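Field reference: "sequence" (input) and "structure" (output). Example, Glutamyl-tRNA(Gln) amidotransferase subunit A:
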Amino acid sequence: MTHPTELTIAGARRALAAREISAAELTQAHLDAIAALNPRLNAYITVTPELAAAQAAEADAALARGEAGPLAGIPLAIKDLFCTAGTRTTAGSRILGDFVPPYESTVTGNLLRDGAVFLGKANLDEFAMGSSNTSSAFGAAENPWKRQGDDTALVPGGSSGGSAAAVAARLALGATATDTGGSIRQPAAFCGVSGIKPTYGRCSRFGIVAYASSLDQAGPVARTVEDCAILLGSMAGFDPRDSTSADVAVPDFAAAVARGVKGLRIGIPREYRVEGLSPEIDALWRQGMDWLRAEGATLVDISLPHTKYALPTYYIVAPAEASTNLARYDGVRFGLRENGEDLKDLYERTRAAGFGDEVKRRILIGTYVLSAGYYDAYYVKAQQVRALIKRDFDQAWAQVDAILTPATPTAAFGRDENQDDPVAMYLNDVFTITANLAGIPGMSVPAGLDGKGLPLGLQVLGRPFDEETVFAVGGAIERAAGFHALPALRAAA
């Protein structure tokens, strides 16, 4: 039989149903892998072996009774931004380093309802602010992939770097993640796995530590497109506790993966041919077009003219919302508390000690653009441009069913590369940010390797609440690409 950590979620479900493996055995194999590799990769901040073993035992009992849920016995990593009742939730920050929530996020609650096993909490950029997973207060996560002939530590992408690294290194069958400007799709591309940011409102944000509330959206990272569809089917759903949750039906996403692209119109936005795009990624993009054309899709040249304003718009809107959301961390109600001579001094000492440099940078930017005299010039203007970006997509859907773009401008970079240039780091999200600003679904699918043996991803964008078409196109790319390359550092190696 295939090594337990090499199974896909779909394969593991079949093996569990056929009694070829128990949930306890599957879970223990992953816990052993975490013990062996996590000290190097730092993909997990907190590992929960006792909880995982207990949940696996419950899953085995449910399987024996014939009452198993759709994820019974499936071991997952949970991004440490989702509140988990009784298990530490840090958001990658010192200010929440000892915070143990008394309640469960809706997304993780849905997964538990369906029988999933939680292996632990995955590493992330502090408060999900970053593109490299190097700003975590608990140390950087490492990408399990290596350049050929080079042992340089590479970043797994951010902010969901721990989730993507854990899945790629076979330390989990799948993982939860969040995406504010590309934080599911960019790490998925860097680590050679699949990841989807669903439509804004598809998954509840209740119990997820907020970064930028109008942009944040939960989604899955997994080894295959089908596995992402299976996970999203459990994660999604209406939640009356979240005012932004959409009251729409959750379709059978997994069924859409195999339906093909014949007759679909696929948009190719000319504005995504940006300066600095790797020639290898451009070549892969063209290859992706050829794959879809060969499968019966029609390619349509489209224009998204306001794309060039997406990065500056995002880096006004997101920090503004972050400065408001992070005002709650004051040392009074929960989290870190540094004593001060008076209330103001307590605030200053607590926030200075609790927040890292990147979080402080974004709070300062956000507070500035919301301040008197600058609110209209920056924040209001950015929201107006955001509306134009969304309008570009709305007009494009009259011509096309989905859009194909690169996922990232480059492959994964070294941990010590680009770190002293925030603007260069922000450019990593140039292809992904528009989907967050417009609230549409976007998926990254591994489709090839660069000249140094590192994975590259293609991105599929879709209409709001039409994740089924995104999965159909993603599935077609996955089948055509036949991506089976493996990272150097992985559990079954």
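The domain at 4-259 is CATH 3.90.1300.10 (Amidase signature (AS) enzymes).
The radius of gyration is 21 Å.
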